[in-house]
Design goal:
Radius of gyration: 24 Å
Helix content: 25-40%
Structural class: alpha/beta
Amino acid sequence: MVATALRDRKADIGDATFGVGEDSAISLNRCCTLFGANASGKSNVVKALAFFKWFTMNSSKDVQAGEEIPVRNYVLSSVSAAEPSLFEIMLFADGNTYRYGFEVNTKEVCREWLYIKSDKKRSKEIELFYRDGKRFEIHPKFSIGKELADKNMVRDNALLLSLAGQFNDPYAKTIMNWLNDTTIITANSETEIWAIALKAMENPETRNRMVEFSRYADLGIEDISLSELGVLTSHTQYDDEGRETASVTFSMKESESEGTVKYFSLAYPILDTLEHGKRLIVDEFGSKLHTLLITRVISLFNTKAGNPNKAQLMVTLHDTNILNNSLLRRDQIWFTQKNGRGESELYSLSDYKVRSDASYEKDYLLGKYGATPIIEDLSKALRYESKL
């Protein structure tokens, strides 16, 4: 999400970036998109972030002593198959930059670390703690963490930061709050997101905003209500002369399109993220949604007017219509591609020299940026001889 020093003619599309602090030289993008062929690793990027969030927030309470850590090594490499998996994130909160990470295998936390740096100029990074197996080096500022480590309260399969958060350590709480304000929607989150939407509907003001958001998409829905039967949508009935005659009620789950259901499910996370300056990460965002809807949502996040609170959106997509230099900066476009060893590589369009009038979509489909599928002769899979 870090913005680069682009010199493109259209680089400042809709105030697409914002600074992290008055003295910091770092700017962040309000939105980024991730493209790539099927099985190129897009979903694994989102899954890695989802695991990082869950394990950081819950390892001290949801993983019991002796239980396996639900992480899988990269087994297509004989080297990494025996090595722990490494996760690290840099986040900006409360005028500081936090760098937190850990290495884990299925049995234990091998290493864990936390560094902090003020966003003021010429400030230096401070190591709050470093864990190597059972050995801890802890800065006096991280006093709660030191007490927990000295009392041998940190389990092998749990994170020190996760435990410190339960004891209200201020550094841990800052990171936990940041993660809690980061909604991650994977392919397996549909039931959870639907439940969140139903809960949000219980608040009349939130319900009205979700209804307006649905009208914004021109779904033909006049109203949405919550009953014992579930979510109900209201539509207008007309006679042969085009006159309104009545209001007809549908069950959203049973009668509305899958695209309508998905858009409604995403309504609350999108509105909540924009209103409170949070972060929203969605895998397969374009699935079941029209290109114009996807474009409008990205535009909402990508402008200061639609996104005054500096919310951030990260989505994976297949819809190449979004690859448009009037909608996205080059550093807001990322690709995943597998190399010859089956490893996923993540890179940005900003790594390429691109003409100011270039068509991102056309050049991508021509394979100029990679990250496209290599499709063999499909007729070889047919039982008969193809004449194509």
